[in-house]
Design brief:
Order of helices and strands of chain A: HHHHHHHHHHHHHH
Number of helices of chain B: 8
Radius of gyration of chain B: 24 Å
Oligomer: heterodimer
Strand order of the largest sheet of chain B: 6-7-8-3-9-10
CATH architecture of the largest domain in chain B: 3-Layer(aba) Sandwich
Strand content of chain B: 25-35%
Strand content of chain A: under 5%
CATH class of the domain at 67-255 and 277-294 in chain A: Mainly Alpha
CATH superfamily of the largest domain in chain B: P-loop containing nucleotide triphosphate hydrolases
Keywords (chain B): ATP-binding, Cell membrane, Membrane, Nucleotide-binding, Translocase, Transport
Number of strands of chain A: 0
Largest interface: A-B, 41 and 50 residues
Largest sheet of chain B: 6 strands, mixed
GO molecular function (chain B): ABC-type transporter activity; ATP binding; ATP hydrolysis activity
Protein name (chain B): ABC transporter ATP-binding protein
Pfam families (chain B): ABC_tran, TOBE_2
Organism (chain B): Micromonospora radicis
Distance between the termini of chain A: 61 Å
CATH topology of the largest domain in chain B: Rossmann fold
CATH superfamily of the domain at 67-255 and 277-294 in chain A: MetI-like
Number of domains of chain B: 2
Structural class of chain A: mainly alpha
Number of strands of chain B: 21
Structural class of chain B: alpha+beta
Radius of gyration of chain A: 28 Å
Chain lengths: ~325, ~350
């Protein structure tokens, strides 16, 4: 017993050696920046390079700051609203395209176009679209007799404009994942449900949506992580304005760190964001695993089934009812 | 008890040949009908048309005289058991069984306790009460099959459609389930249509057999009818295990010549014919016998209770069953006798039956 064990240990030592280059890369490009950011967030590091450890001073500062609180709240609102809208729209489009028989591939490609633009272009295009003096949307409002909306000078319209731009760009992503999931669903349970007396809405809510749950959770998880880091579209469309009313955490960190040179405070902001994203991700991952487990057979259940099968068979064979027939 | 009639139904999916071509049959109330045919014969298409999942191009399907053409699937009150069981993966066994009773079209017909009672009853009939709180992914094939049957029976449908429900079970379980199916169908008295590629299902279960191949019904009749008096070569080939021998022969004015032997077979036009004889009717001997032709054993398969021996007779392979343990080794000589009374004769050009074997 001793010999194989020591051999295994030796083998493991070699394995670690062979794994060391990628591990070194991981340390250099993921762990070091993370550790460094956290260190910077605990210091008064300025862009000129002078720094001194100050403990949690930066965190106290940002938590007391109205600007940061506003940015933080905006980030959460943007993340929740955009991801929800993208999910609902993406799902609707996926269902519609899935059912259409003609021109499906062309439709699919067209729907993916927004995702291919760089966010800079998206931000610029939508800024132009919403421009109060020469934007097509203001012109359209004028044409149908709606009152002019101060798109970028008031908080609610500005946030709405940003949400619309982000939803426009990222709904295709939801659509893509949900459409692929729909295509891979077995059709038989849906046919069975039709024969069993379900139709339309009930078919959708009782069967299609539960069967899409794992894919939905994956799509929402991926989009949520991205949504918390919303930066480019906001930067281009409103620059966080009016004032800091549409600012996000990333935007606020950018202004604090690179414009005002206070790297320590900026690092504290991004660290706060990281913690929030981490918690949200963990919760969603839990849900995803839970959703997946409902469908897949666990080892435990499989074992139990094997045992039951034997009982089942003997039961059937011995049953007097069965032998009576014929 | 509802009578199902299918009249002149055709369906094409855009392929070179129709999936179902001009199909007609009538299944009486409470009867057990079996559609038998190889995969691709159109069995599932036929059941889907009756269930309303696919609409026929032409023809009419009626249930108790009422046309189903304008009735959507959820309102037909027809239950179907699918080949791969099609259980709802996200619902427990109990919720799977409840689903048809809670469906919108039947909402309000049954109270909560009545639904629970029905589910308990059907679970009892199918011996699955201990599985009610499991998910379909935690069940074995046989258990899933029972649940899917339970889901079909729980609402006492007007018509029960079974699409190869036991094809994917292992042989032993398949046999048990076949007996169970017959018992349950008798108990409930529900008109049932069962699709299967397995000819023994057809012979064991059916009040009415529809032999389907390439979308055509080659014969509709009782199990004895289609087995004893196949209307054509396709039906003869579909039913019976081991498969019927089909040998090239010639017909003259008064008889048939096959394997170099001549048999009296009544009056008829001369020409090439296909002579069919069931392996069980072939008399096989390891010693020379009067009136037998000599051949050589190619292969011998033991089924336990009997052997199936393949004998090469002048280039033609003849399958014969023999008592288990017969000394028929590959390469050894054997003698084959075809009793004249047991021969089926088919016209080679059309496959139409000219003469059936005499039933003893």
């Amino acid at each position: 017993m001793a010999a194989p064990q020591s051999r295994a240990a030796g083998g493991q030592w070699h394995k670690h050696l062979l794994l060391s280059p990628p591990l070194a890369f991981f340390a250099a490009f993921a762990l070091f920046p993370l550790g460094f950011t956290i260190y910077v967030s605990l210091s008064n590091w300025s862009i000129t390079g002078e720094h001194r450890f100050i403990g949690f001073g930066n965190y106290a500062t940002i938590l007391a700051s109205d600007t940061f609180r506003q940015s933080f709240l905006n980030t959460v609102i943007f993340a929740v609203v955009t991801v929800l809208l993208q999910y609902v729209l993406g799902l609707t489009l996926a269902l519609l395209v899935y059912r259409s028989t003609r021109g499906q591939s062309a439709l699919r490609l067209l729907l993916l176009v927004p995702m291919m633009f760089t966010p800079v272009v998206v931000g610029f295009v939508w800024k132009t679209m919403f421009d109060p003096s020469y934007g097509p949307i203001s012109w359209l409002f004028d044409l149908v007799g709606l009152p002019q909306v101060p798109w970028f000078s008031e908080q609610l319209p500005a946030m709405t404009a940003i949400v619309i731009a982000d939803v426009w760009q990222w709904t295709p992503f939801m659509f893509l994942i949900l459409f692929a999931a729909l295509r891979s669903l077995p059709t038989a349970p849906l046919e069975a449900a039709m024969v069993d007396g379900a139709s339309g809405r009930r078919l959708l809510f009782d069967h299609l949506l539960p069967m899409l749950l794992p894919a939905s959770m994956t799509a929402i998880l991926l989009r949520s992580i991205e949504a918390f880091k919303l930066f480019d579209v906001v930067y281009l469309m409103t620059g966080g304005g009016p004032g800091v009313k549409t600012s996000t955490v990333t935007l606020s960190a950018y202004f604090t760190g690179l414009r005002s040179g206070d790297l320590g405070t900026a690092a504290a902001m991004t660290t706060m964001l990281l913690i929030v994203v981490l918690i949200a991700t963990l919760v969603l991952l839990r849900l995803l695993i839970w959703a997946g487990r409902r469908r897949s057979r666990t080892d435990d259940a499989a074992l139990q089934v094997e045992r039951d099968d034997v009982a089942d068979l003997t039961d059937t064979v011995d049953s007097p009812v069965t032998t009576e027939v014929r | 008890m509802e009578t199902l009639t299918v009249t002149g139904v055709s369906k094409t999916f855009g392929g070179p040949r129709p999936a179902i071509a001009d199909l007609s049959f009538t299944l009486g109330g409470g009867e057990f009908g079996v559609v038998v045919g190889p995969s691709g014969a159109g069995k599932t298409t036929l059941l889907n048309m009756i269930a309303g999942l696919v609409s026929p191009d032409t023809g009419e399907i009626t249930l108790n005289g009422g046309s189903l053409a304008a009735v959507v699937p959820e309102r037909r009150d027809i239950a179907m058991v699918f080949e791969n069981y099609a259980l709802y993966p996200h619902l427990s066994v109990r919720r799977n069984l409840e689903f048809p009773l809670r469906a919108p079209v039947r909402r309000g017909q049954l109270s909560r306790s009545q639904i629970a009672a029905r589910v308990a009853e059907v679970a009892e009939t199918l011996r699955i009460p201990h599985l009610l709180d499991r998910l379909p992914s935690q069940l074995s094939g046989g258990q899933r099959q029972r649940v899917s049957l339970g889901r079909a029976l729980v609402r006492r449908p007007r018509l029960l459609l079974l699409d190869e429900p036991i094809t994917h079970l292992d042989a032993k379980l398949r046999h048990e389930m076949r007996t169970e199916l017959k018992r349950i169908q008798r108990e409930l008295g529900v008109t049932t249509l069962y699709a299967t590629p397995d000819q023994s299902d057809a012979l064991a279960l059916a009040d009415l057999v529809v032999v389907l191949d390439a979308g055509r019904a080659w014969q509709v009749g009782s199990a004895a009818d289609v087995y004893e008096r196949p209307a054509n070569v396709t039906v003869a080939r579909t039913l019976g295990d081991p498969r019927i021998n089909l040998l090239q022969g010639r017909r003259d004015a008064t008889g048939v010549t096959v394997l170099g032997q001549r048999f009296d077979a009544g009056q008829g036009p001369p020409g090439p014919v296909t002579v069919g004889i069931r392996p069980g009717d072939v008399e096989l001997s390891t010693q020379p016998v009067l009136g037998a032709v000599a051949g050589r054993v190619l292969l011998s398969q033991t089924l336990g209770y009997q052997d199936v021996v393949y004998v090469d007779v002048a280039g033609a392979t003849v399958r014969a069953t023999a008592p288990a343990g017969i000394a028929a080794r590959p390469g050894s000589p054997a003698w084959v006798r075809l009793p004249a009374a047991r021969l089926h004769v088919f016209e080679t050009a059309t496959g139409r039956a000219l003469r059936h074997r005499e039933v003893v």
